[in-house]
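Take a minute with the sequence and C-alpha cells given here and flag any C-alpha cell that looks odd. Thanks in advance.
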Amino acid sequence: MTIILSPQAQKELFEEADKTRQNNDPDDELDFTWKHPQALGEGHLRRVELRQNLVLEIESYQRHDNLIIQGIDRPHSLEFWFMLSGQWRGNSIWAVNETKVGQYGFCSTGMAVKGENEFSQGRQLFVGVHLQPELLQSFIGNSSGELPKALQHLVREPEQPLYFRSNLITPMMQYKVQDILHCPYQGMIKRIYLESKVLELLTLLLMEEAGIQIESRTPKPLKSGTLERILYARDLLLQRLDNPPSTAELARLVKLNEYTLKRGFVKVFGKPLFAYLHDYRLEQARQLLETGEMKVSEVAQKIGFASRNYFAAAFRKKFGINPKQYLMQRKYFF
C-alpha cells in the first residue's frame, strides 16, 4: 500500500505530531524530539539547532507503508544526508534523484520545485544536516568573499535548479555519523562535539566535491563506444520528458557508470544532463505555443512541468516573455 500526502494533509498531520515535541536535553533548549505521526508508522525526528545557520536532524522511523509526499515550490538550503536504512526518491521537473541505503546525498541551494518525495516502507534511519551559505562563507580567509571555483556551484540563486549528487558513504564518513548517533555528552559539550562531527563530515564532502569538479574540467578523450552511449542516453532522456529517468537509471540503461555518463554528457553537449533537458523542454514549449493550438497549462503538462507557475517563470527567464503573452502575440501575428 502507498500513502499519498498532499501539502495540506502533510501540514495537518505534522501539526498534530508537533504536539508531541519534547526537549531532548535539559541543558539544551535547542534540542528537540518529535514522534512520527502514528498514521504513517512509528519512530521519531530529533532536531538540534547547533547555531543559526546549522541544523542537525536524525530521523528514525518504521513506516507501515510506502509514502509519497507531494511538495511545493520553495527555496532550498544547502543540505547533505546519510541514508543508513531505507530509500528516498525525489521526482521534480529538474530531475529524478535518489539515495539508497549506504549512500549519502549532497544538495545545493536553489529552488526546490513542486514534485514528489517517495519513501520506502520499513525501517529508515537518516542523518541530515541543513546549512546556509553564510556558514561556508564564514570560513573564507580572504577579502574576496567568494567560495573556491570548484565549490561555487553549491550556492545558487533562488530561481535556479538544484545541484544534486549521491555516492557511497565512505568508511570515514560512517565513523563520523556513528559518533553523532552515539554522542555521550549533554549540554554545551554535546553541542561542541556534534558541531565538530558535522563540520568533519562537511569537510569530507567538500573535499570529494572539489576533486570531482576539478577533474571534470580536465579534458579527457572519450573511450571507444562511449560517444554512442552518450547519444543514446540523450535520446532516452528526451523520450520521457514528462517522467525522466534518474541519472542512476539512465546510466544503467546505456551501460555506463554515472560519473562517465555525467562527464561525457557535459563534454558532448556542453551542459549537464538535466540542464540540457530543462532547456530542451522550454524550446519544445516555445514551438508548441507557436502553433496556437494548445493552452499554456496543456503545454506545461505535456513537456513535464508539474507547476504552471514555475513553467511561466522558467519560460520568462529564458525567452524574456511570459508564455501566455507569447501565445497571444503569436495568435495576433497570424
The chain has a mean pLDDT of 86. The longest strand covers residues 41-51. The CA atoms of residues 86 and 124 lie 4 Å apart. The chain has three domains: 2-216, 226-270, 275-333.
